[in-house]
């Protein structure tokens, strides 16, 4: 069996994409993609058989399947402290 698979990846946060350089067999590519997805959850790794599928189409399909997550609200430290201070109730000792 020929090594016709490559791993394509997409960054979930900003949809940057790339293609691995190594040619792999099907089982090895599927295993590696699963391992990479577990170790790097900010990326989606997909094995692609270059003998039957165009890599550019696979990248387009991957981009379409990923929903870009909006950044969560980041608490500005000075704002947080100011809010805490405003809500502070003095207790007499």
What keywords describe this structure?
alpha+beta
Please tell me about this protein's structure.
The longest helix has 14 residues, at 26-39. This protein is α+β, with helices and mostly antiparallel strands and 93 residues long. The chain has helices spanning 26-39, 55-65, 77-86, and strands at 5-11, 17-19, 43-49. The protein has one domain. The chain has a three-stranded antiparallel β-sheet with strand order 2-1-3. Strand 1 and strand 2 (17-19) form a beta hairpin. The protein is built from three helices and three strands; from the N terminus they run E-E-H-E-H-H. Helices cover 38% and strands 18% of the residues.
Topology diagram in text:
Blueprint: E1 5-11, E2 17-19, H1 26-39, E3 43-49, H2 55-65, H3 77-86
Antiparallel strand pairs: 1-2, 1-3
Q: Could you say how many structural domains there are in total?
A: 1
**Beta strand %:** 15-25%
Helix count, per DSSP? 3
Compute the average pLDDT.
84
Largest sheet: 3 strands, antiparallel
* Strand arrangement across the biggest beta sheet: 2-1-3
What would the principal axes of the Cα set say about the shape? elongated
In N-to-C order, the SSE pattern is EEHEHH
How far apart the termini lie comes to: 80 Å
Residues in helix, % = 25-40%
Task: Describe the structure concisely.
The protein is of the alpha+beta class and about 90 residues long. Helix content is about 40%, strand content about 20%.
